[in-house]
Amino acid sequence: MSPRHVLLALLVAAIWGFNFVVLKAGLDEFPPILFSALRFLAAAVPAIFFVGRPSVPWRWIIAVGLVLGVAKFSFLFIGLDAGMPAGLSSLVLQSQVIFTAVFAAVVLRERPKPVQIAGIGLAVAGIGLIAWDYGMSSPLLGFLLVVAAAACWGVSNVLMRYARPADTLRFMVWVSAVAVLPLFLLAFLTEDLSALGGLDWTGVGAIGYVAWISTLLGFGVWGFLLRRYESSVVAPFSLLVPVFGMFSAWAFLGEDLTVLRTAAGGVVLLGLAIPQLAGRRAARAEARREPLVPAGR
Q1: Would you list the domain boundaries of the chain?
Q2: What is the pLDDT of residues 77-106, one digit of tens each?
Q3: Of 24, 44, 105, 211, which has fewest CB within 10 angstroms of its CB?
């Protein structure tokens, strides 16, 4: 990657990491499902009138909208509202890599390689340590809800493998639009909507950041990088999201990082990084082995 594009990848990781701090601020202003509904409304309108519909069958747009937009973010927002720390949430949510590999093996018949199994096992061990440490001092409900959000993310990743959207930004705008009505209906049935009457600049800022900066700008730049480079080159930068997330939560929210949680976080990141690094090394080795084809053949 060129230095400019490396900086773009780092910017996206920082935006997505800091997003968890903003989510905490937004949840101080709104109940979780209502906040999620407002986020997707802001992400979809007015962008949906300018980007055009993606060249993807409606069934995949609706499926990803329900699984990713409604289920995943409802679990995540409710988990954060239940007391799950922002920094740890940014880390635990990366267990979506584990769920994606498992679901892909079951549904897509993709057999994981030994190095992937080893990496997943290491990441599971790290998340188990976090669960144990977190459970010693706090209820596990928030943690389990964030794990459920990661599982939904894994399902949506498999659905997106089927959908194969050519334009990630356009696809996310329409996925956001699908999520709006179900989320508002859930909020109407289960939450107090009086927060809409007391909307202030903190709430507006939180919605704006999560919808326009994290969703539209973040996915737009990420999709641009994926179109320019192989996924094995771009994907490892997502491992920096929990690094930025945990540092931001410590710096802005004063969240405590115990030695065990920090060490376990390192174990999780190592487990997630091993398959990525091994995949890049194998791809380079394969490229070196390919014979040169004489011109004209």
Answers
A1: 3-190+200-286
A2: 999 999 888 988 888 888 887 788 788 888
A3: 105
